[in-house]
């Protein structure tokens, strides 16, 4: 099949999925599977190949992040039950106020916690974002959701030790210290500017709570407030946050160890996100058992496991669409279409990464592929490799949408409709991509 037809069928599958969900109100699970089946059959994978691509895509996502999602949700549920999230929310509101919270989250998450992979970071922070959102004067869920997206995605591709930033820096031969410093120079202003611009968009009436948010489900964090007799037994904020801090410190240490080339031994083992989150869950469970009761701790775990179900299913099916797209060879086709030309190398790097991200749905893969395409020609162009790396990371932020498992996980964690997720996740990453490109181009003028 020709390259043009593969690209055409991919566009039809993605647009058709969006239309089914938004216009025809089809459940995302059905729409995603329909789009995946169409794409596989239309691009010549055949019946067996299409099924294998769908199942392998689902399985690959579950293998890489399935247990991380489970442990992250359970940790968040237990922290809610012991009052940690409520107390932390109150502390943040006292220090910064509700209206500044989106700025605090977007900048802190992107600059301080890039070692924590996006899926894990989102799972850990979503309960806190949901708790703060009602305190914001207008459209709090949208504002906090956008902040969480920005914090998770910017650190991934622009700031070392984010996985995408590390890979692109390695491909282009950029010193990691340089990538860290100038990644922060781009990511922090991008977070602040994009958050400000997004709030201006919200102020003009874009958000509709009735259609963009789902009816809130019963959540575990309500339990301590509904049982005031237990409140005296709840631990202090510092003690209740220890399991979360333990997980974060271990994950960060593991990321630093990986950068240093340490891939075996206790530090690499305990710094693995799976082990770190599991230890955090154990600590939070024991704390809940002691502070509340064995029954309440068990009920909280049960509620958390029920909450995991829908998140895992929709995330996995999003991975199925990505798996089919990968089997079509679209990534190689798009890479072949790009070569150095009259465009600025920085704009070209941004375009390559943006197109790849829209097509294949992986932020880190888009950044890495764009870097790989341009790496062979860096010697023949008069542009610093650092700037190309930053431009590729900037383009890879563009438009997280329905072919990304992150999109669907965010939807479930923030309790949004698909329309609302497009207005937050997709819109804010598009804005951040454009803002960060402008900053990279400004930086290039001073280079």
From TrEMBL:
Biased composition (Acidic residues): 213-226
Region feature (Disordered): 213-232
Top-rank taxon, per record: Bacteria
Keywords assigned: Membrane, Transmembrane, Transmembrane helix
Key word Transmembrane present: yes
Annotated Gene Ontology cellular component terms: plasma membrane
Alphabetical list of InterPro entries matching this protein: Glcn_transporter
Record field: transmembrane: 5-24, 30-49, 61-83, 145-173, 179-198, 241-261, 267-288, 347-374, 386-410, 422-446
A GO MF term: gluconate transmembrane transporter activity
Name of protein: H+/gluconate symporter-like permease
Annotated source species: Halosaccharopolyspora lacisalsi
